[in-house]
Amino acid sequence: MIPTRGYAATDPKTPLGPFDFKRRDPRPNDVLIEVLHCGVCHSDIHQARDEWGGSIFPMVPGHEVVGTVTSVGADVSRWRVGETVGVGVFVDSCRKCEACLAGEEQYCLEGMTVTYNGLERDGKTPTYGGYSERIVVDESYLLRIPDGIPLDGAAPLLCAGITTYSPIRHFGGDQARDAAVLGLGGLGHMGVKFLKAMGARVTVLSHSPGKQDDALRLGADDFVATADDDVFEKNAGRFDFILDTVSASHDYNAYLRLLRRDGTMVIVGLPDPSTLEPGALINKRRRLAGSVIGGIRETQEMLDFCAEHGIASDIETIRIQDVNEAYERTMRSDVRYRFVIDLASLREGEC
């Protein structure tokens, strides 16, 4: 067993703090990784505070992990010591169901093994995430970080990036003439970058007028403040595709009516349930869909796309000792647009 330091939530009410635990020794197909950077995802906060239920404590969060291979198991063929790799939202799956065989491990019929706050395939060993100095992962569930992407800016791509890239590709948003991104946060800012790189005319829809300058800086062609009284009437039937990244409750029906005939709105946030009026779909053969992350193959495709187009997440780098403040700031939307932990702070400083 490998002694490991990290930061953990010990219960839903206590701030995260130093935590010593043990990683397994690498099995024949495992890779040992020194963690360099780990993104702070909004879902880390929900799970550390048990806001979704089912949290497993103590919990070491973090599923946007970038690091360096420091050793490999005897049967590892894909990776070498010194390579830079990524670990995303899951670290294993059943490998035999229809979804896994199709390269869609995130939809594993037996359930994917999440990087933290889950159990390994034995059903009893807890998984611990990237707020730590090292992690051990099966070689089949690692990703290659291409040259040209800043390593800290690459970390959020492993969740925020693929969460937006996958539905754009799957539901044809990359073919849209006029696309909209609803919400400009950790997910939304990546949606703007991807859609723009794919050739769409991109509009940001936001209830916060103060985000207009940022939206245009990120590449958006237009900005619509949704708090304006007549905005939905003025923009009815305007868009081919809407990427809905908002995690707060909102009226799906109003936004669906911004789609033209055969348009698609894809939900990637997790708001509270909202009433859906069938007429918002039926009248113009619109579609409302959902999506969650992507498989290993598609996530690698996304990383390669980012390298080709010069895309990375907009980040603010923090020390791990400041993670609790980062949680509070994230809840206030006081970050542009993702916090990333520099794990050197764990190795070099006092915890």
From TrEMBL:
Cofactor(s) required, per the database record: Zn(2+)
Keywords from the named record: Metal-binding, Oxidoreductase, Zinc
GO MF terms, alphabetically ordered: alcohol dehydrogenase (NADP+) activity; zinc ion binding
Gene3D superfamilies: Medium-chain alcohol dehydrogenases, catalytic domain (3.90.180.10), NAD(P)-binding Rossmann-like Domain (3.40.50.720)
CDD domains hit by this protein: CAD1
Region (Disordered) residue spans: 1-21
Pfam families associated with the record: ADH_N (PF08240), ADH_zinc_N (PF00107)
Domain Enoyl reductase (ER) residues, every copy: 13-341
Alphabetical list of PANTHER family matching this protein: ALDEHYDE REDUCTASE
Family affiliation: Belongs to the zinc-containing alcohol dehydrogenase family.
Name under which the protein is recorded: Hydroxyacid dehydrogenase
